[in-house]
Design a protein that fits this description.
This protein is mainly alpha-helical. It has four helices and no strands.
């Protein structure tokens, strides 16, 4: 079993918090676009970090999936068509929920 790594836990908590707070600004497309970039950068960092933690296969898979969701959201903001408030809230909500599940798993590891 993988042991607890505080940096991994901190990063997934930041992703969860950023996504939760980002849902509040979905009515402002410019702020939402910046939030999508920030979250996508953090999920990318989290995926890279998780790859180097020993015996961490489940989190490696989950971090890859989480990063794919965040990267798709960032890419959507790069398109010319406007992003709806509902889509913004849905995607940030998905990231928040997935990060919350991962936070619980990572936080329960033995110290």
């Amino acid at each position: 079993m993988t042991k607890y790594y505080p940096n991994e836990y901190k990063l997934i908590t930041e992703i969860r918090s950023d996504s939760e707070l980002a849902k509040r600004t979905c009515d402002d497309v410019n702020v939402s676009k910046m939030n999508a970039i920030i979250v996508a950068n953090k999920t990318h960092l989290f995926e890279l970090y998780s790859q180097e933690v020993p015996r961490n296969q489940n989190v490696i898979v989950a971090s890859k999936e989480l990063n794919e969701i965040a990267q798709a959201l960032e890419a959507r903001y790069s398109q010319t068509e406007p992003v709806s408030v509902a889509y913004c809230k849905l995607k940030f909500g998905n990231i928040e929920n997935n990060a919350g599940t991962m936070q619980h798993i990572i936080g329960a590891r033995p110290r």
